[in-house]
Design brief:
Number of helices: 6
Strand order of the largest sheet: 2-3-4-1-5-7-6
Helix content: 40-55%
Oligomer: single chain
Distance between the termini: 73 Å
Mean pLDDT: 88
Strand content: 15-25%
Radius of gyration: 20 Å
């Protein structure tokens, strides 16, 4: 019995040492830590928060994010009243979320689960006969959606950013 308890104690000690060594060591030096902890989205929302009232639409990537609308609600300090009063759209069963019910839009904010559909929405905004003030929060591989505009904010190293934020009138 003592041997089992001692073995268990050694196992707990070793696993904790390995975790602490990784989490407070190598993990902090990895560039992906910003995306894993979604600090990049938090920084984009810090930039967006004072501008949100003057924006007509916000398109935010879902790449490398788990349940992005939850994080956006928290980081933008969205009020529960606003959440329930504004229109929301959901999608169920579409790739890659076959068995999930996801929020694709709330208020002015659209989550880009399907960037090709978002590109179509942007074209519709551009051809609606009025000027719309739009913010795009994109991963570097999605910047083609910005149509060659200059970024308003680059989050991460300039050579390999985590998120790129565009503010444009279309």
């Amino acid at each position: 019995m003592i041997l089992i308890a001692a073995s268990f104690a050694v196992w707990v000690l070793v696993s904790h040492l390995l975790f602490v060594t990784y989490f407070f060591g190598r993990f902090n030096d990895e560039p992906d830590r910003v995306m894993v902890r979604q600090i990049d989205l938090m920084q984009a929302c810090d930039w967006l928060r004072p501008r949100l009232a003057s924006v007509d639409a916000v398109f935010c990537t879902d790449e490398n994010m788990i349940i992005p609308h939850d994080n956006l609600l928290v980081y933008l300090n969205y009020s529960p009243r606003q959440w329930f009063d504004e229109p929301r759209d959901y999608a169920t069963g579409e790739p890659p979320y076959y068995r999930r019910h996801v929020c694709t839009r709330f208020g002015k904010i659209r989550i880009m689960y399907h960037p090709d559909r978002s590109a179509e929405e942007l074209r519709e905004l551009a051809s609606n006969g009025r000027t719309d003030h739009v913010v795009l929060i994109l991963r570097p591989e999605q910047i083609a959606l910005a149509g060659g505009h200059r970024p308003a904010l680059v989050i991460g190293p300039p050579s390999s950013p985590f998120l790129v934020v565009y503010e444009l009138d279309i």
